[in-house]
Amino acid sequence: MFKDRRIVTYENPDIDEAVNRLNEAFNEKRAVIIVGNCWVDYHGRASSRLEPGERIVIVKEDGAVLVHRSRGYEPVNWQPSGCILQAFKEEDKLVIKAVKRIPHEVVTMFFNKIHFLSTFRLMDEGEFSLYASEEDMQKAILMEPSLIEDGFKPIDYEKRVKPGFIDVYGVDKSGRIVVVEIKRRTAGREAVLQLAKYIETLRRELGREVRGILAAPDISKDARQLLLSLGLDFKRVDPKKCSEVLRRKEERKIVDFF
Amino acid sequence: MFKDRRIVTYENPDIDEAVNRLNEAFNEKRAVIIVGNCWVDYHGRASSRLEPGERIVIVKEDGAVLVHRSRGYEPVNWQPSGCILQAFKEEDKLVIKAVKRIPHEVVTMFFNKIHFLSTFRLMDEGEFSLYASEEDMQKAILMEPSLIEDGFKPIDYEKRVKPGFIDVYGVDKSGRIVVVEIKRRTAGREAVLQLAKYIETLRRELGREVRGILAAPDISKDARQLLLSLGLDFKRVDPKKCSEVLRRKEERKIVDFF
DNA sequence: TGCTAAATCTCGAAC
DNA sequence: GTTCGAGGTTTAGCA
Lengths: 258, 258
Known about the structure:
Protein Yojf, Chain: A, Trna Endonuclease, Chain: A, domain 1, elongated, 14 strands
């Protein structure tokens, strides 16, 4: 049990030791960090070759593999979780093969120098929460329709129409049908076209006028132009304010409960 | 110089030592790996909170930050390259702040236990090559137009039309204008609609018939149906074969040169 | 299983 | 600087 948790670190291990420690770790579903000089081949949906250099390699307990260079957010090579790992020695080099089926993809890493190798099991039950998603904005608008405009009354949400799903569907204070398209970030032309498609479909279906409102924290200049030319409206809605609305309503729910 | 390259590892460092080593590393643009118990706040385009647990944190020399949990390909929290880093002690905890402007985003990591901390500089000049990209396919088709069909003659590529850029533009053996849309993977409805937009624009512009060919390794069932209903063609083109064509042509170039 | 839409997408190129 | 498109995108939600 203690061994599971303990972090075992090897500085400058020789190839044989590295092979043993790695296969041990792969069998015991322990995570691994390797820093060393390596080159990497990938074959699958595409193919790639990474010429020799020092990199950080992480193998996680679920089989995910990441090869990181000295810069940038993205790994240069990787393998998602669920791949089968194997380490062996070949011509005085450490070889690690990570194989995945569906799609069939293989990442092969060759090390001629291992500066550092560490194996361990992470104890991690902490919850992760992300706030102010597009879904949060939708919920907030449904709970607090004045975020769109005074007198707006939602009737439905995620309403199925031919081209997709309408985020929020309702009537304005004059009784006109309103379609609301929500974007969590600056809305581009794409968002306007999406809204326009819904409007056109509904106009044909219902045989009456339909208003379109694009709800987003901001809108790009060309999108605004397109929006105007199509006779649609824009309503600035702040995702963070939506989070606050949700939080407030949640609190009220709890207050009402007691 | 040697110190730069050497990997320096501290097992179970106390908070003060960790703070010193980290700020040293941030100043000297050395990369850092930390394994320890931490919680993380993020505020920026969205907001998030990660409750305590053991994680792997990487800080790269360009300021990129990655917080990895025990499973999966993606970091749970991160910061792209170019952010400003700072480590300090607060109430017996190690705090690392990673701040980026444009957009303004802050990731704050709190550690109450550091299992190990390692700092180093990666020597990495190795080239990375990805084969069989969409660009490779385009090049291959331009070099070997029969990949599309016999008698096809390319005239232009990346041709600007109102909705975007036409991958390859040419004439078929009957002299009809042909627009080729290339996809490196199974083409979906989206690809067909893209091609259709180009075709329609060109038809209006030129006032004559225009053929459309979707070139991809495969096409989804619904995309094929849409394609047929629009009177467009599909041509199966294998990305790997394109790579081979390119390689062959490159070889020929070298042969011709000598 | 396959498709669609979103992502704190990232990254690079073009305007 | 902004915008646009591609990515071995990945990931999550559904039909």
